[in-house]
């Protein structure tokens, strides 16, 4: 009798795991191939060869680019390359990238940059906040940007017990920001099976300030990119595994209220907002299985979506760029500035287009 019970339970468990694995393949679009969509005037950006995972653009057109991310489960094609922050002036006719110098006292050897966000103070000083993963931990580094010297002065490292497995960040004030946690377990492979395969929704968005740190939204499968509307009233959060964007109302006490969810059908990574139109631009992964099981002969593709009329009952969703990996692999972010489009990737190259 005891053996029968054990065998019954084992069979049920194996059936559940099998069902979950099938569902997981569907969630990551394991069979999907993309049809090419490309503006006429596009080219690869020289000097960005080892990732451009996140990009943030100042109102002046200067774009900060995080490069060199080492993330568990993702391809690492240049293990000897250090993490860097690049600068690109999108006002130039043929913009080029330049690696920014960093403070001598900052530990550049362990710099592993992920999501980034800029903040301009009342005195017009520009600060760059960087999600960093030294030794695969999570910190937020604050730098002051010296434009003339093309350098970053390290000011502070922020750590907190809630700042774990941090993916992205959006700064809303001096040392005030929202951040996403993309997995609950700090071990990626445990997270992959127990959270993603079993379809658990344990990740969250937190608000950080020197006076208060709190979870302000939860129940995400894998909270990823985060940004803010041009009028500063709404926060947009990408849930990569659920293939959607959550629109949330921001309150004076920094709490967030869910308003709507925009389903996309592709695995959305980082988000940016066109300050002129309010449109969301999303760097997406059309087939995440190709990222997890990287094969240079059949590489992961890239996809960029534009979401217009975000707050309406029927947002308009369009594909602005798509490639099967022959040009660009693993797109993670897309930003626009005055008719120019810059697309970054987790570990690969970057593409610049004139729209």
Which properties best describe this structure?
single chain; 355 residues; five-stranded mixed β-sheet; globular
Notes on the structure:
A hairpin with a 4-residue loop joins strand 9 (139-146) and strand 10 (151-158). The protein is built from 3 helices and 25 strands. A 5-stranded mixed beta sheet has the order 6-10-9-8-7, with no helix packed on it. A 4-stranded antiparallel beta sheet has the order 1-25-24-23, with no helix packed on it. The longest helix is centred in the N-terminal third of the chain and has 26 residues, at 2-27. With 355 residues, the chain is mostly beta strands. It has helices at 2-27, 188-197, 289-292, and strands at residues 41-44, 54-57, 62-67, 84-89, 97-99, 101-102, 113-120, 126-132, 139-146, 151-158, 166-173, 176-181, 203-208, 213-220, 223-228, 234-239, 244-250, 256-263, 267-273, 280-285, 302-308, 316-323, 331-337, 340-345, 351-354.
How are helices and strands ordered from N to C? Answer: HEEEEEEEEEEEEHEEEEEEEEHEEEEE
Unreliable residue runs: none
Strand order across the biggest sheet?
Answer: 6-10-9-8-7
Give me the secondary-structure category: mainly beta
Helix content percent band = 10-25%
DSSP E strands, number: 25
What is the molecular shape? globular
The N- and C-terminal alpha carbons lie at a distance of 70 Å
* Sheet with the most strands, sense and barrel status: 5 strands, mixed
Beta fraction of the residues? Answer: 35-45%
Whole-angstrom Rg: 20 Å
What is the number of helical segments per DSSP (H or I, 4+ residues)? 3
Q: How much is the average pLDDT?
A: 93
């Amino acid at each position: 009798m005891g053996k029968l019970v054990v065998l019954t339970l084992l069979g049920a468990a194996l059936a559940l795991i099998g069902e979950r694995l099938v569902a997981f393949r569907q969630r990551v679009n394991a069979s999907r191939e993309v049809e090419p969509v490309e503006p006429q005037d596009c080219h690869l950006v020289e000097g960005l060869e080892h990732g451009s995972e996140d990009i943030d653009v100042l109102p002046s057109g200067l774009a900060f680019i995080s490069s060199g991310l080492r993330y568990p489960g993702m391809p690492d094609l240049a293990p000897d390359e250090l993490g860097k922050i690049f600068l690109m002036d999108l006002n130039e006719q043929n913009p080029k990238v330049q690696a920014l110098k960093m403070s001598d006292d900052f530990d550049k050897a362990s710099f592993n940059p992920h999501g980034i966000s800029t903040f301009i103070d009342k005195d017009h000083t520009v600060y760059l906040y960087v999600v960093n993963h030294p030794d695969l931990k999570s910190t937020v580094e604050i730098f002051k940007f010296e434009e003339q010297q093309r350098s970053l002065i390290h000011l502070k490292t922020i750590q907190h017990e809630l700042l774990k497995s941090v993916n992205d960040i959006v700064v809303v004030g001096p040392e005030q920001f929202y951040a996403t946690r993309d997995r609950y377990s700090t071990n990626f492979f445990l997270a992959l099976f127990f959270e993603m395969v079993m379809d658990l929704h344990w990740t969250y968005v937190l608000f950080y300030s020197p006076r208060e740190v709190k979870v302000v939204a939860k129940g995400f499968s894998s909270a990823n990119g985060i940004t803010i509307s041009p009028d500063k009233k709404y926060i947009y959060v990408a849930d990569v595994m659920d293939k959607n964007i959550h629109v949330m109302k921001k309150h004076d006490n920094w709490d967030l209220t869910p308003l709507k969810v925009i389903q996309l059908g592709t695995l959305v990574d980082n988000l940016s907002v066109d300050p002129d139109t309010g449109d969301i631009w999303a760097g997406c992964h059309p087939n995440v299985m190709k990222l997890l099981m990287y094969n240079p002969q059949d590489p992961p593709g890239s996809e960029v979506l534009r979401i217009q009329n975000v707050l309406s009952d029927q947002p308009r969703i369009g594909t602005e760029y798509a490639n099967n990996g022959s040009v660009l692999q693993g797109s993670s972010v897309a930003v626009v500035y005055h008719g120019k489009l810059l697309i970054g990737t987790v570990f690969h190259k970057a593409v610049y287009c004139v729209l």
